[in-house]
Amino acid sequence: MQLHTRSETQKLGTQKKLGPGSASNLDTAAQGQEASIMNIEKTGGRFFSGKCSSLPGVRQFPMIQKMVESMAQLQEEKLQLQEELLALQGKLSAQENEELTVSVQLQDQIENLKDKLLAQTQEINRFHSGLGGTDLEKHRDLLVTENERLKQEMKSCEAELLELRKQHVKCVDCEHVQENARLQERLAQLQLEVGEAKGRLSELDLEVQQKTNRLAEVELRLKDSLAEKAEEEERLSRRLRDSQETIASLKAQPQQIKCIIKTVEVESSKAKQVLCEAQSRNQYLKEQVGMQKQVLKEMEQQLQNSHKTAAQLRAQIMLYESELERAHGQMLEEMQKMEDEKNQAIEEAFARAQVEMKAVHENLAGVRTNLLTLQPALRTLTNDYNSLKRQVRDFPLLLQETLHNAKTEIGQAIEEVNNTNRELLRKYRRELQLRKKCHNELVRLKGNIRVFGRVRPITKEDGEGPEAVNEVTFDPDDDAILHLMHKGKLVSFELDKVFPPHATQEDVFQEVQALITSCIDGYNVCIFAYGQTGAGKTYTMEGTPDNPGINQRALQLLFSEVRGKASDWNYVISVSVAEIYNEALRDLLGKEPQEKLDIKLCPDGSGQLYVPGLTEFQVQSVEDINKVFEFGHINRATECTNLNEHSSRSHALLIITVRGFDYSTGLRTTGKLNLVDLAGSERVGRSGAEGNRLREAQYINKSLSALGDVIYALRSRQGHVPFRNSKLTYLLQDSLSGDSKTLMMVQVSPAEKNTSETLCSLKFAERVRSVELGPVSRKAELMSWSSQEHLESESSVAAQPSIRTLSSSNSGAPTGRANSLRRKLQTSGKLRPVPV
Ligand code: ADP
Ligand code: MG
């Protein structure tokens, strides 16, 4: 080393500075060496080292000196190369170490990554197989299971709720179901993301694996090249040692320089060649090292990239984990919420269910009780049913038997009934005879002529003031007695019955209806309404449309009676309506009402009377009656200018004929009911009346007197009854004689201004009634009923005490009053004409 000159050293330093990569400099240096060696050969092959130059021998051999110099230079170069090699080796080893470290680190990382991969794979496997997993997964699985369980529970609750609210409650848990579905969706999404992340992780693992493989390859190659280098180095150093030994031996033997030089020259060329090879080899190694470095760099780069990717993956995993955690938290929260809601819903449902269950229990209890009570009933019903079934089965036989028995029994019964009927019919006929006999006896006892009095109420027509004062009073204990205050004196009268003003049409009819029904049995009946005009005759007989009188009520009664007997009797009811005006009889239902009718004896010699041409209408209902009455009214109205005036001056007759036929006996009956609304009985002042008015009054007076005479004669059972004295009595001859019954309804006004007429009417009534008394009546047989002279003058009435007073003052015998009256009449001896 000490042989190096300053410039050479500098040159070496420059070369050194160029470093292992400056191959061109090395080539240049090698070319320089070759040039020096060529120069040595041209100059006789002399060789000198650096040290030798100072030697006097060297100076003497420039060739050797040059050689030595070139050798020194070569050695220097060799040294430099060795240094460089060492440096390179150091660097290489450092790099190897570094590579080793990096490799170890990489291995570690790979191991870590493998571990993680393994863990991930296991996790994935676990996840896939569902056997175990991380705590999180376990927890999640648990939660999923819990969720499933809760869902099941909720479903059952919902089903229960639905069951309970089937009729009127809709599902309120739809919200929860939706929430649950949403959560499940989210869970599925998260699971999908985890799967994706795992896929990506496995991809990255694969990549890392590939890189590791490549790294291992590169490492292998590096090791090979290092081993080659080491071998080459070994070889070079061995040769160098050999050369150095040779040089040292040459130095030690100068006498042999020439040959040595030669040898050296020869060897030097060889050495040069070897050096060249070594240099080229070195160059190649350097290139290899450079390449390796490049590869290493790339690998480092790749490693860094891997690191980065791993870091990214870790971050992503962290992110996923946090996401998972968050989702888990959210899920827990929602599960809690759902749990709460579920609990609440369950509580509500439970409460509702309890209430409903209570009601159901109550119902059930009721049903149980019903069932308990029904069971015995059911048993009874079953028994009944069974017995009925048996009966139904046995029914045809039983029926036949029963029918046979029944037929026999019915035959017997019919026979018995026939016998009984015959017996009954016999008894009935006997009873009928008896009844008729009894009735006749009763009529005979009661008298077949009865006299009722009816007092109308004070009306507007009576006006006001003293004239309209009520002068009639009644005996509260006896409905047959009334009192009249006339000119300051109280006169009392006794009739068969007295109707006060408040007596209704119904009350009146009640009293007469027995009389009316007797005409169904074939009796003739006459009912007369007697009294002054305005005393209520028409009211009593006809009445008003809404409050009918005797006429209509009598017909209605006859209809109902006939209907009641319809099973045994056939009845035909017919009516005639007539009037007697001025002793002329006219048919009010005829086509020519103005025509005067005659009363004739029947040509059959029966002595019966009949009116040829008198219309007779058959009636069956109230409507028929109303039509007949209306027709009669119309005919009556067309025949006169003033109906009221006319009706008060004429007698109106309603003749009802009831013809009956008894189916069982073949008996035929005919009864006549004559309802007569007489003309006004008031007296017309002698002076005031003339012309028509006078004639009317005379006719009325005559007919009323004739009626009185006839009744008197009948009741006193006189041999001769003067029926022919008036048209009225002649017409009613059949109905007044024999078993016939007569009712005289005497109508009176209670007003003060009418007291005179009232007095007359009542006296007439009482007189008719008093005739009933047998012995006296017989006595009075010779008396004429027309002797109404006491009615003539008020003074005569006023002068006498009342009839009641008279009778009471008598011996007290029931006939005393009438006797005294008749005596008086007889003593008076006045048979004056009827006053008009
Ligand atoms: P007559 O036929 O005797 O001339 P009416 O029957 O025409 O008398 O009666 C005269 C008036 O007195 C009529 O307005 C009638 O309504 C009335 N009248 C008669 N009797 C009664 C009575 N009992 N109740 C009420 N009003 C009666
Ligand atoms: Mg009248």
UniProtKB/TrEMBL annotation:
GO cellular component: adherens junction; centrosome; cytoplasmic vesicle membrane; kinesin complex; microtubule
Region forming the signal peptide: none
Gene3D superfamilies documented for this protein: Kinesin motor domain
Kinesin motor domain: residues covered: 448-771
GO BP annotations listed: microtubule-based movement
GO molecular function, one term: ATP binding
Entries under Pfam families matching the protein: Kinesin
Comp. bias intervals (Polar residues): 791-813
Mode of membrane association: Peripheral membrane protein
Binding site for ATP: G531, Q532, T533, G534, A535, G536, K537, T538
Compartments in which it is found: Cell junction, Adherens junction; Cytoplasm, Cytoskeleton, Microtubule organizing center, Centrosome; Cytoplasmic vesicle membrane
Positions in coiled-coil regions: 64-253, 296-352, 403-434
Region feature (Disordered): 1-30, 791-836
Keywords of the record: ATP-binding, Cell junction, Coiled coil, Cytoplasm, Cytoplasmic vesicle, Cytoskeleton, Membrane, Microtubule, Motor protein, Nucleotide-binding, Phosphoprotein
Keyword Cytoplasm: yes
Role description: Minus-end microtubule-dependent motor protein. Involved in apically targeted transport. Required for zonula adherens maintenance.
Family: Belongs to the TRAFAC class myosin-kinesin ATPase superfamily. Kinesin family.
Protein name: Kinesin-like protein
Organism listed in the record: Crocodylus porosus (Saltwater crocodile)
Originating gene: KIFC3
